[in-house]
Amino acid sequence: xxxxxIHLLEPDTNKRWRxxxxxxxxxxxxxxxxxxxxxxxENALAQALIExxxxxxxxxxxxxxxxxxxxxxxxxxxxxxxTHEDHLPRVDLQSTVTxxxx
Length: 102
Hints:
The protein is mainly α and 102 residues long. 48% of the residues lie in helices and 0% in strands. It has one domain (2-76). The protein has helices at 2-8, 19-23, 26-29, 39-62, 93-101. 0% of the residues are buried. The mean pLDDT is 78.
């Protein structure tokens, strides 16, 4: 177990073990049940593949590229332009002048 954990925690991604190396490790190989998926695991994988296909089909129907470059935005709509004055309290200058003259 110790050797497996050491290889999984390797900071260098080129040296870190891949899933096939983990599955073939001495500790995992002790129990052959880990190498054969259960019926529930097979069903979950099949369902995940179906959902992924539906997701990708939905994206392609919309004409959108599932992989966008960093910072790219498809549709941006400005609902209301904001200015600095929008955030200041509104003051009625006419009533302020009237109060000051009294």
